[in-house]
Fold this protein.
Amino acid sequence: MATSSHFHYRLPDPLSRWVNDGDEQRHPVENTLAFGSLGLGLISMICVGLGAWEAGAWLALSGGLVAVYDEFIAKTSGERWLIMLAFILSIVGMSVSMANGAIF
């Protein structure tokens, strides 16, 4: 007897309709990367607000790189909006961190 151990997540319905607006199909990899880069950007802004410049810079750098990669593979405009928001948060976090002596 074979059992499937795959876990399939679903976004809440309004969020799913907004992110997957173009073709109404699920894009689990693109959505995961988009929300991951948004999370990294938000956490980097929290670190910058608390004065943790090094942590904020590295989180912003990784969030920006994930966002850039996800922008290349994004399928819908809802995903692209989310990715650009994450990229802007990462750029601001990186800029403020570097202005305060992080990384270099």
